[in-house]
Structure formats: C-alpha cells, structure tokens
Automatic annotation (TrEMBL):
CDD domains assigned: FN3
Organism encoding this protein: Centropus unirufus
Superkingdom classification of source: Eukaryota
SUPFAM superfamilies linked: Ankyrin repeat, Fibronectin type III
Fibronectin type-III domain residues: 202-299
Entry's Gene Ontology BP terms: establishment of mitotic spindle orientation; regulation of establishment of bipolar cell polarity
GO cellular component: spindle
Disordered: annotated span: 1-25
PROSITE patterns, A to Z: FN3 (PS50853)
Name recorded for this polypeptide: ANKF1 protein
C-alpha cells in the first residue's frame, strides 16, 4: 500500500511542476503561494459573471492550498507561519486532521521532528495524531517505509540525471532530485526523532480538590522532562483504593487548552484516589498520584443540612406578583387597559401622537424641577433627538429636592419597565390619600410612559446610582442601556459622543453648569460604570471585604470601580466549592479566641485552605489600604458561604463590629486607595441581583 502511495506521488510529481529544490526555495515558494491564497472573497462584485458553482470551486481550491501551505510550514519548522495559518483559518478549513498522501498529519511531522512550539500550537488548535499509528511498531514501519522509498526515488532520479544528456527534461529531473533529496532528509530526521524519543515523565503538580457533593476536580501541569517527545494526551484514573485495584474509571484528555478534569457522578462521603499519566508517541509514562492523595465529595451545606438561601424565592415572588395583579385586574381603572390593542401599529401611532402633543415632547432646556433622561449607546455612538439633544422628559416642575427614598423606589421600578402601565393604574387607585409621595411617584411613572412612547421602546435600561443635581435646582435621573444590535428608534438618531460633546453650546457658566452640561461632561464615566457593572467574575472562591458607611437617609457600601456590582475582593482559588471538612475547620477556627495555625499534623486539605486564606487576606488588606497588623481584629463571617450561581462563591472578611458601618462624622483612619466608590446599599443589591 505504501509503495502504491509513493507511485501515485511520483505520477503526480511528473504531471505538476517540480517541488522545491531546497528548504529556502521551498519556503519562498509556499510563502508566495500562501500570500496569493489569502483572498477576501466577500470583496468580489456580486454582479460579476462568476457563478455560484465557480465560486464554490474557487473556495475549495483556496482551502486546499491553505492546507498544503500548513504542511509546508510544519515541514520547514516555520513557527510564525504556522501560528498565522491557525489564526487565519479554522481547523475544518485547514483539514487539520486529514492525512496527506504519505498518511501523515501536521502534528505527526511536528512531534517526530521534536518541534515542541509547533506541536503545542497544533494541539491547542485541536490537532490529532494519525489514526494509522495504532502501535509503536506501526509508526516505526510507516516512517521506515517513507525513508526507504524516498531513498529509492533519489537513487532513480540520480541515475537518470547522470545518464541523460543535458536538455530541458534533464533540468526538470534535477529539480525533482533536489526536492526528493530534501524530503529524504526530512524523513530521516523524523525517523531519528522517533527512535531517540522515550516515554514522558509523570505530570507535575497534580492537585485534587472537592468540586461538589458528587464530584472532584484534578488539575496538573505537563512533565518537566526536556528530552522526551511532546505530550499529546493525558489519562486521569480514579479508584476507592490507594493501590487503584480495582480501578473505578479513567478518562483520556486530548484537548490540552487547559489541564484539568472534573470527575462527576461520585458518591458523597466516599474517599476517591486519583492519579494522572502522560502520553507521547512512545506510549504512556508513569502515573503521578495527586496531592492530597484522596478527596471526599461534599459541600459545606452538609455540615448542618442547610438549604440554599434563594431556593424557590424567584417562583414565590412571581406567584405573589400574580396574586397582586389578580386582585387589581377587576378595578374600574383597569378597564381602559383591557381595550387597548397590543399591536405594533397602535404603538407607533401612539408615539406619533405624542410628538404633536404640546406636553409630550423631548425637552431642550431644563427649568427648576425633576427630570428623566435615557442614554442609549452603541460603541462610541449615542442616541439623540433630531435637535441633537439627549432625550429628556419632565417628571415634576415643582419638585426641587429629590428624596432618597423616592429615588430608590424608582430604581426598583427599573426592574419592571414592561409593567409601567399597570403600576400607574395601581398608584392612581391609591391617590385618594392625597399623599405627596404617591403624587411624585405617579409622575415618575407618567414620565417613564412618556419616554417609552417617544422612543418606541419599553426597556430604558439601568438607573445610574445617583441623580445629577445643579445649583439652579434641576435634578436629573439618568438611565443607561447598551444597544448591541442595529436597532432603530423613533424620533432619535445616532451620533458620535465626541461630536455631541464638542457641538453642544453650553447655556451655563463653567462655574455653575446645568445638569445637562454636567451629564455631557461625565457621560463617558457613566457609560464605563454601566459596562463594568454588568461584568461577571470568573468561576472561583473569593474573599470579600464588607465595609459600610451611613448617612442621614441611606447606607452605602464600599465597592471597586472596576466591578461595582461586587464587594471589594480578591480571588482565593479557582474552585468555588467549600467542602464539609473545610467548613468544619473554619467553624472551629471561628469559635476560638486565638486561632492556632494549621500544623504539619493537620489534614492537608485544611492546611491548603489555611495557606490560601493567609495569602488572600494579605492581598485584600493591601488592596483596601489597611495595615496588616489591624487584620488580627478582623473576622471571617462563619454563618454561611455566599453562593452566586454555583460558579462563584464568597467568604466575607468583616472589620471589628464597631467598624463595620462608619457613622456620620465618625473618623475612618484607613481610607481606601483610589479605584473605589460607595454605592447606596439598595442600588448595590439590585446590581448584585443582576
């Protein structure tokens, strides 16, 4: 079979131009070709005469040539070019795991020439070894055959060149001879690389941790050996016996982007031993036992059988809201709501009516009062009215002092933008009490409906955590929403933020800017806050710092500017789970007045957590600018682990009880470094829920 493949290759060589005469010539050839192959097919004129079938043929030809360019780059050990091709094309487009006419894959050539950088780049892209190499003998026989037949071809071409008279045909034979001589040297180098290689050493730093009450996670690093061949896969084995007899299961990991594996479906409370071994083209190396040697699947809730705090809460709240709606749906004030069509046509006509109603237009200037503005942004563009103004509507022109409780109530309304009409009707029913607060809140709901109608959209986004106030008595409540699609709105258009800032002519003095001028000056900061407040933490266990400060009408919480929806924090480890044994140890440490550091006799899992906490506490104290000596008076919150979706969990570090919340006028000796802000507690809770 191999001989037939080589004959086919010789026939192909005779039909097509001869191969490169040397590595340098080959490199120039494939670079020139691959440069020509990089064609942007979307740039072709759609009205051209090239039919769909022609374009498909052209595309397939292009991909075939890119596959050939990848083989050339690997053979020439051009790491930069290999990385460029892997970045430019998907594995499917490159036919990364389709053998060539010699039965080889790019990864086979890389590992047998012992080119570790190229081999690792191919592995990370999803490359595999040839399925033909089912044993050491089959690989050895295959490479030896390639060497032998390449040598035979070199001898044949040498004889032809020596015996033939100089002519054009002889010149072509000489080029073929040089190409085959180079390929012969490549195969010999591959054969030598295979023969001199040895099985890999054991993986290093095999760490075992408890991932949940039914799973454990093992992480590891590649072997330290430098002389063995590149590792192409790993095997994880587990058993209830330290001798691994009998074994319970194994898993082969051939996707090497991240070296970790979670063993699932285990029995809670049972000890499991784990070991990991590495594989290269010479076979499997020795296994490496994990540290600690075993792990017992568990979760901290098993310590006292505690149920998750939020279990069933969302369903209960939905049910409660449904009950409230049911009670109100038969009210007289709701009859108009039933008769309103829900079609898009009616929504548009209603919005158009708003445009011609004298009291239902966007405002250009502010008088003394309370206003609502909605900022919609996409990349560096912002939505403005046709008069190049940020959309603003009036809430109350007689309201010159916004009470914090009204503002916090409005932030909760932002969770129900699609229920504004229903809320308005509910507040209308309650207006018989003539409450000033209810009157203000009804006007807030009316302004929201007006903004929704003018824009033609219900979701106005997230409320910025503090309103903008100027010295003229204007108060501006700001909502922010990022638009990620090419969405169109009524009565507004997109303009670059920088253009809006430079083109707007201020009607106020620099010493006393209006609320609108203050908004334009700080709009980038507000957009940055909005984007950061939607970011999520990577999975892991974190140590959070709870610090509050109180004012006359609110309590504020300290948060980092880079992630304002989360407490000040540092990462303890990547595994978010706290096992039952770790939680028991934390409870013991919290119950003694002078905690005793874990000693050599302590369980290694608990000792590992103790060391991780020490590092995290030092890092956190530095972050919030508190001397490490003061940390001895701090304490861990030992009532529960804060769980966020199963992938992120928090342990809380609390200051002394007298310092958890700083009262008005109380001196705080330790001021955090720059990069922090304080949010109203209710605003923080809404952001954390999101």
């Amino acid at each position: 079979k191999m001989t037939q493949q080589m004959r086919d290759l010789q026939l192909a060589q005779a039909r097509k131009p001869p191969g490169p005469s040397s590595p340098n010539a080959a490199k120039r050839l494939y670079r020139n070709l691959s440069g020509k192959f990089r064609v942007n097919y979307t740039s072709f004129d759609e009205g051209s005469l090239v039919g769909r079938g022609e374009k498909e043929k052209l595309r397939k030809s292009h991909l075939f040539q890119s596959n050939a360019a990848l083989f050339e780059a690997v053979e020439l050990q051009d790491t930069e070019r290999v990385q460029e091709l892997l970045k430019q094309y998907s594995p499917e487009e490159l036919d990364l795991n389709t053998p060539n006419s010699e039965g080889l894959l790019p990864l086979d050539i890389a590992i047998m020439t012992n080119n570790a950088p190229i081999a690792k780049a191919l592995l990370h892209a999803g490359a595999r070894e040839s399925p033909h190499f089912v044993s050491l003998e089959s690989r050895s026989l295959h490479v030896s055959t390639l060497v032998r037949e390449a040598e035979q071809r070199v001898n044949e071409l040498t004889a032809q060149v020596v015996n033939e008279a100089p002519n054009t045909d002889c010149s072509e034979k000489e080029k073929q001879l040089k190409a085959w001589e180079w390929r012969y040297r490549l195969y010999k180098r591959m054969k030598a690389g295979f023969e001199h290689a040895r099985v890999p050493d054991a993986p290093t730093s095999v760490h075992l941790s408890v991932a949940s009450s039914s799973s454990v996670q093992v992480t590891f690093w590649e072997p330290l050996s430098v002389n063995s061949a590149v590792v192409t896969k790993y095997k994880v084995e587990w058993s209830c016996s330290p001798t691994f007899s009998p074994p319970l299961g194994e898993a082969v990991i051939d996707k090497l982007q991240s070296l970790h594996f979670t063993i699932q479906g285990l029995v809670s409370g049972t000890a499991y031993y784990v070991q990991v071994s590495a594989y290269n083209m010479k076979g499997w190396g020795p296994p490496q036992a994990s540290v600690p040697p075993f792990a017992i699947p568990s979760n901290w809730r098993e310590y006292d059988g505690r149920a998750p705090r939020r279990r069933g809460q969302a369903a209960a709240l939905d049910h409660l809201l449904g009950q409230v709606k049911t009670v109100h749906q038969h009210c007289v004030c709701h009859e108009p709501c039933k008769n309103q069509p829900q079609s898009r046509k009616h929504s548009v006509s209603k919005s158009l009516k708003h445009l011609f109603h004298p009291g239902s237009k966007f405002l250009k200037t502010l008088k003394r009062g309370l206003y609502l503005t909605a900022i919609f942004y996409k990349d560096d563009n912002i939505l403005v009215t046709h008069e190049d103004q940020i959309p603003v509507v009036e809430i109350d022109d007689t309201y010159s002092c916004l009470l914090m409780q009204d503002f916090l109530w409005f932030t909760k309304v932002s969770c129900m933008w699609d229920e504004i009409l229903w809320l308005r009707q509910c507040v209308t029913v309650s207006q018989s009490s003539c409450s000033c607060i209810l009157q203000t809140r009804f006007k807030m709901l009316l302004a929201v409906s007006q903004m929704q109608g003018l824009l033609g959209i219900q979701d106005l986004g997230q409320v910025f955590f503090e309103p903008i106030k100027d010295k003229q008595g204007n108060i501006l409540i700001v909502t922010l929403k990022e638009v990620k699609t090419n969405q169109t709105f009524e009565s507004v258009r997109w303009v670059p933020i920088c253009k809006l800032q430079t083109s707007r002519k201020s009607v106020s003095s620099p010493e006393e800017p209006t609320a609108l001028d203050m908004l334009l000056i700080s709009v980038q900061d507000k957009l940055a806050y909005h984007q950061r407040s939607s970011h999520a933490l990577p999975p892991g266990l974190y140590l959070g710092y709870l610090k509050l400060c109180s004012a006359v009408d609110q309590i504020r919480v300290l948060v980092p500017e880079r992630l304002p929806n989360i407490l000040c924090h540092v990462k303890i480890r990547s595994n978010p789970n706290i096992s039952r044994e770790e939680w028991e140890w934390l409870q013991k440490m919290a119950s003694v007045e002078e905690p005793v550091p874990a000693g050599p006799e302590a369980d290694s899992t608990q000792d590992q957590l103790f060391q991780e906490l020490q590092v995290a506490i030092k890092e956190l104290m530095t972050l919030v600018n508190i001397p490490l000596g003061e940390a001895k008076d701090f304490r861990l919150y030992s009532q529960e682990v804060l769980d966020f979706g199963g992938q992120v969990s928090f342990l809380l570090l609390l200051p002394p009880s007298d310092d958890v919340c700083t009262a008005p006028g109380q001196n705080n000796p330790y001021t955090p470094r720059s990069g922090f802000l304080t949010l109203p507690l209710q605003i923080f809770e809404l952001g954390e829920e999101g």
